[in-house]
Predict the 3D structure of the following.
Amino acid sequence: MKNNLYIYNALNRKKEKFEPINPPFVGMYVCGPTVYGDSHLGHARPAITFDLVFRYLKHLGYKVRYVRNITDVGHLVNDADEGEDKIAKKAKLEQVEPMEIVQKYTNSYHKNMEQLNTLRPSIEPHASAHIIEQAEMAKKILENGFAYEVNGSVYFDVAKYSKKYNYGKLSGRILDDLQSNTRELEGQSEKKNPFDFALWKKAMPEHIMRWPSEWSIGFPGWHLECSVMSTKYLGDKFDIHGGGLDLQFPHHECEIAQSKAANGYDSVKYWMHNNLITLDGQKMSKSLGNFIMLDEMFSGDHELLEQAYSPQVVKFFMLQAHYRNPLDFSNKALKAAQKGLERLMNGISALDKIKPAKNSSFDVNIIKNKSYEALNDDLNTPILIAHLFDGIKKINSVIAGTETINENDLSELKALYNIMFFEILGLTNDSESSSSNGKLDDVMNLLLNLRTDAKKNKDFETSDKIRDKLNEIGITVKDKKDGFEWEIKQL
RNA sequence: GGUCACGUAGCCAAGUGGUUAGGCAGCGGUCUGCAAAACCGUCUACAGCGGUUCGAAUCCGCUCGUGACCUCCA
């Protein structure tokens, strides 16, 4: 399996050639959501980023197993090791079973991800279904001497681990700095050091999500689930581990430590992180309360939104920035993305109207090669999209008569847009379904033919009235030399 | 306070030693009954100050500004 793909590996902080451990197989694990609430804009970014990775690797011919977990236990509200479980807290609030919460928000996550046209992962494991494996891993770390038990809880001994391995190598942190900078929080007295983290927590009486173990009736620590589920389904060593940049420390750092402490090696070859979405320059976060739900984006029902933005617009907006750079949300930028996407889609539909000439006045292969170059350079979608726009300009020029294209190049170009736009970027033309309504077509043809008659009779008052009223309804009419075109406006 | 990023035209956003990124908006033109769409043209920037270099937005230093992580978050 040949490829020329370079991806940025957070472990070494540079772009590296992508060479899977066992080609043609590729294993990719991505940290999924903790399902205790509806998905917000921030959830869309890793989903879109790693969907792109998934799609491109498949396009290159790899057999990709994409595992993305559902966190439904062990993720606590306040501190990693103290406080209420997020799921349990929400369950209490909504007066339902914890697993009802899990199901409800898993469903809503799936719905949003489908709207964004991201592919389902190959396996979507739940943390709560892997309690035994998590306890086993904790035991292994304990046996290897990198953890200690206190009052039924098991903690990872970071200081001891650091003597043998490098804790902080992923996030570039130095233990001494952590030591002097970690805040002292209440209830951490059990731990030898404040930066130690829980592998197993004894459940307090009010804690309803609990399982038996040899140490206590309790629940696993948050970081353990990803170490366990990734290797269970992808093998001891696998290719790509992804997630949001905010998870780099401590979550991913702890995963590395757990793997090394248990097995003596890091399981992951390439660590990839998508950067975050900001709102007015600030990260969206629960504590600041400045986050927008995906449902609100799609409906426009939020005080910060000037209009609704379709899932495709939101996706395109994100793909126009590189995944490793922060992206600031604004109505202005979203609207620009919407216009740009329309231009791109109109151009792609226009491909079908082109009549091929004998010769081509431009080189389709250049666009094609540059598109692949962009993807191979750490999935540089902004560059890819720029080249796609260049192609659209050529397409429009052919229609305008200033460029020509031959039959062979035309089918090459069509294939290219199918691959890049639909298959790899995973964008869709969501107006297509509505325009394939036969009866509506008939009605529109009737109406617009009447308008054409009015125009012939120089009755522009009537023709403009039809066009303006249709526009109000949400249908754009475009006059052509030899007739007319109409389309249902997208949000 | 510690660690790490970033600062690119009106807005968004790539690039990262020499060559037009791209999109949106604006302006002028072509087309059109008028629009819309499209095409052609135009506007052409790299926070500031020093340094390295034949050459720097790109490398180095300092200054200013913004943000992230260090605590749950994608």
The longest strand of chain A covers residues 238-244. Chain A has 17 helices and 15 strands. Chain A has three domains: 20-274, 279-424, 433-488. The radius of gyration of chain A is 27 Å.
